[in-house]
Design brief:
This protein is mostly helical. It has one domain. 69% of the residues lie in helices and 0% in strands. The chain contains four helices and no strands. Helix 1 packs across helix 3 and helix 3 runs antiparallel to helix 4. The chain is elongated and about 65 Å long.
């Protein structure tokens, strides 16, 4: 599995920010209140990010210790952590980008919005950023360093010395 590309996350963030901005604009053009996300959403996103990093720690510890470890890490667990990290980075970008669009709409209105209207959305943006960053860190923690088994250039199994 390839690592998550920054261009993918940036494009998701741009699309969802535009969607959030457009949704708030449509809601404001009708007699409906604009969308305000809840504070626990941002806090929960941040906690999920921390949990993903904590789940990746055993995989990283095993990758650093290498073959000297008595019990190998479960490859299914490592795969699950990598997939969870990849999905979490995408979800963090989705939530953060959408909330950023909501904040952008509120700040571009002619009337200055109250702190009660903008703060929950700003916290959701922060939670999305924390989730994305933690997920990318966890994904990088699960990358195994190249080991001695990767050196298959020499058919004799020895080392090659350049003269």
């Amino acid at each position: 599995m390839k690592p998550t590309r920054a261009s993918t996350l940036i494009s998701i963030a741009v699309v969802t920010a535009v969607a959030g901005f457009a949704l708030d604009a449509v809601l404001a053009s009708r007699p409906a209140p604009t969308l305000i996300l809840s504070v626990p959403l941002g806090v929960t996103l941040a906690f999920i990010g921390v949990a993903v990093v904590l789940m990746a720690r055993p995989v990283r510890r095993h990758a650093r210790e290498g073959a000297g470890r008595q019990r190998p890490v479960d490859p299914l667990y490592a795969t699950r952590v990598v997939v969870l990290a990849k999905a979490s980075s995408i979800c963090g970008t989705l939530f953060g980008g959408f909330a950023l669009g909501l904040v952008a709409y509120l700040l571009t209105r002619s009337v200055t919005p109250s702190l009660g209207s903008t703060l929950p959305n700003v916290i959701a943006v922060g939670g999305g950023i924390v989730l994305t960053v933690c997920a990318l860190v966890a994904e990088r923690m699960c990358i195994a360093p190249p080991g001695d088994d990767d050196d298959r250039d020499d058919p004799r199994g020895g080392t090659t010395t350049v003269h």
